[in-house]
Task: inverse folding
């Protein structure tokens, strides 16, 4: 795995979307629903170039210049283009697949003579919403009829709006101060009003005027919940303290509740992105970014949780942009790359993770780099909790575990931390297993297994995208250390393995047999036989056939392992056949017969197998006893002592006759002809 030696935990996408930069003849627009950039040259007469994240969302066309373009957006399916050129209407033109633009344009005006369109958003392929200063109007677009049909409307004095395409949530600002919020949720053909609420302001100006602006409010989806993210430049009732970010969570698409406050401890100009459920706060003056995770623990007053940055503020990783080479114009020695100015005044930030520099003509996606955070987050339990919430983080989590479980002097002093770390891992693991079990049963998760851990449970993390299970730990972590024989390292490794099994048991997770095997192998390898005996005697290690077989294989190193294995197999009601095989392989023929009789399987065992094993001992007494044992079985079953042809015992009958044809009496025979097996 390649290491990241720098400490930049944010980066810009390596291949930005390039577009024609803003100029006197070119205007640039961005549709944050489809993530498309429109470069409109000369009102569209000399061309409109659309760049999107995919080839399907990238196109170019020409249109008539009917005045300056205010806004331009495609429908989600790219079939209809909406263009706003005036404050009272929006024009539409159909796109006919490979045939390009339709020649017929159609238009829709807003209601009311003095109504002004503040903007519009597509909610579905054939539905569009006009947001005006008097409310919202929902229309159905009918491309084949070149017309629109009014569906729903909602009247409200509106200052500005923000829209989240992921949740189809529209937030309207009203009131003199701009802090009266009306959330609207759009479903096909319908507008659902959520409870109106008021955003708290840091300072209320006198006289009252609009002070909560669109640029300070962001709609996002955090851990599956629609959220309203508000930048408050001056906290309420606090002077001399930096800005903060207040998060309102939309609960069940009904009400907004203030739930989190992010403390920035800075002031100035900020911008917000959301990457992998993390809130990224960019600060222009210091040219750094801060990382917040609302799923991490913080200070709480019982209503709101207060959060500090996950790591120290750091700049975005420097980015160099390749310059296009125009033939015959590039000067000798002119660099082929330029270093981009980060946190430029020309930057415009869009949700969830887009940065656009319109003058440079670049659109980047902000990405998260996990490896640098391994060294920046000192609390390893906090680090692992953080990483488990991130997409594609399993290799990094494994690397952290490998590092902290190295049998070094430093790590041996962190035993309590390691135990707590295992509880954090297995808490998430248990939640995952519970969800899996409930999904298989076709019922929703009930909120938790009945668990009473030996120590306080780690916080429950719901739906973690990364789960470290027993197979991951065995393959990538524990097996790496199993063969080491460092001074004192053996005890540390054994302790780590037992502590992991303890944690699994506390969370009622069945321990896989390969972990038990690894523990036993480690104990034998480091000659910890007394501990091994105790683990087996007190059933710390669960009984299983594979484990019993492993114990049998360790007999040469630890003779008592043989009897421990037999005891384990006997406890396993399904282990009778294995016990018989083990005893026969050890030439313990008569004990095997006693065991057969004790478990009541005399009629099921193979006479040929026992006679073959008895003959191999070269002990005529043993062979005689076994032969007579099965003769008695034949007498009981068939009324005579002969072996059936299907039993394939002819060679053993001849061997018996050869050995005992002249013998009248044999030790072990009683007066009534019964064979008594030695006790």
Result:
């Amino acid at each position: 795995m390649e290491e990241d030696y720098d400490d930049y935990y944010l980066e810009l996408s390596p291949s930005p979307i390039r577009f024609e930069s803003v100029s006197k003849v070119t205007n640039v627009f961005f549709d944050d629903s489809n993530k498309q950039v429109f470069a409109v040259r000369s009102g569209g007469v000399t061309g409109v170039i659309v760049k999107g994240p995919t080839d399907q969302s990238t196109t170019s066309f020409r249109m008539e210049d009917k005045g300056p373009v205010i806004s331009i957006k495609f429908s989600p399916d790219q079939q209809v283009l909406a263009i706003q050129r005036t404050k009272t209407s929006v024009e539409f033109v159909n796109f006919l697949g490979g045939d390009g633009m339709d020649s017929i344009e159609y238009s829709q005006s807003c209601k009311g003579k003095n109504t002004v369109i503040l903007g519009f958003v597509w909610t579905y392929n054939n539905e569009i919403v006009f947001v005006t200063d008097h409310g919202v109007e929902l229309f159905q677009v009918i491309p084949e009829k070149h017309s629109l049909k009014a569906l729903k409307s909602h009247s409200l004095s509106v200052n500005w709006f923000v829209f989240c395409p992921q949740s189809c949530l529209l937030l309207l600002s009203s009131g003199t101060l701009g802090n009266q919020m009306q959330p609207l949720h759009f479903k096909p053909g319908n507008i659902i009003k959520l409870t109106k609420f008021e955003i708290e302001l840091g300072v209320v100006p006198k006289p009252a005027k609009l002070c909560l602006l669109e640029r300070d409010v962001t709609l996002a989806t955090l851990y599956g919940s629609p959220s309203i993210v508000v930048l408050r430049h001056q906290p309420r009732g606090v002077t001399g303290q930096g800005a903060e970010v207040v998060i309102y969570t939309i609960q069940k698409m009904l009400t907004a509740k203030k739930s989190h406050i992010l403390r920035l401890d800075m002031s100035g100009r900020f911008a917000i992105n959301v990457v992998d459920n993390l809130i990224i706060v960019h600060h222009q003056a210091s040219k750094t970014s801060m990382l917040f995770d609302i799923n991490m623990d913080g200070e709480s007053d019982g209503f709101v949780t207060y959060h500090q940055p996950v790591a120290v503020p750091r700049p975005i990783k420097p980015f160099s942009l390749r310059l296009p080479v125009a033939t015959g114009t590039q000067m000798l020695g002119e660099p082929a790359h330029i270093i981009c100015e980060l946190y430029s005044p020309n930057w415009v930030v869009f949700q969830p993770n887009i940065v656009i520099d319109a003058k440079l003509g670049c659109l980047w996606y902000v990405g998260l780099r996990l490896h640098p955070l391994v060294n920046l987050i000192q609390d390893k339990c906090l680090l692992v909790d953080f990483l488990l919430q991130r997409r594609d983080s399993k290799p990094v989590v494994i690397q952290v575990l490998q590092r902290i479980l190295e049998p070094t002097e430093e790590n041996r002093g962190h035993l309590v931390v390691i135990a707590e770390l295992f509880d954090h891992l297995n808490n998430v693991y248990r939640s995952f297993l519970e969800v899996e079990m409930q999904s298989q049963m076709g019922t929703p998760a009930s909120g938790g297994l009945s668990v009473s851990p030996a120590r306080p449970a780690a916080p429950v993390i719901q739906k973690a995208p990364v789960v470290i299970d027993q197979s991951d730990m065995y393959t990538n972590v524990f097996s790496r250390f199993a063969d080491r024989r460092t001074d004192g390292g053996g005890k540390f490794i054994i302790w780590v393995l037992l502590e992991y099994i303890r944690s699994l048991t506390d969370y009622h997770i069945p321990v896989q047999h390969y972990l038990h095997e690894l523990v036993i192998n480690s104990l034998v390898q480091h000659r910890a036989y007394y501990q091994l005996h105790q683990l087996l005697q007190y059933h710390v290690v669960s009984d299983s056939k594979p484990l019993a077989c492993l114990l049998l294989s360790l007999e040469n190193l630890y003779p008592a392992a043989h009897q421990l294995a037999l005891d384990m197999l006997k406890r396993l009601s399904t282990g009778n056949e294995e016990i018989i095989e083990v005893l026969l392989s050890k030439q313990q023929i008569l004990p095997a017969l006693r065991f057969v009789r004790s478990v009541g399987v005399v009629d099921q065992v193979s006479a040929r197998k026992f006679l073959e094993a008895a003959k191999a001992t070269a002990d005529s007494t043993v062979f005689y006893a076994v032969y007579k044992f099965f003769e008695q079985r034949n007498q009981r079953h068939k009324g005579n002592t002969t072996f059936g042809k299907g039993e394939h015992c002819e060679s053993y009958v001849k061997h018996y006759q050869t050995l005992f044809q002249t013998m009248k009496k044999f030790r072990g025979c009683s007066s009534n002809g019964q064979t008594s097996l030695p006790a």
Summary: DSSP finds 16 helices and 33 strands in the chain.
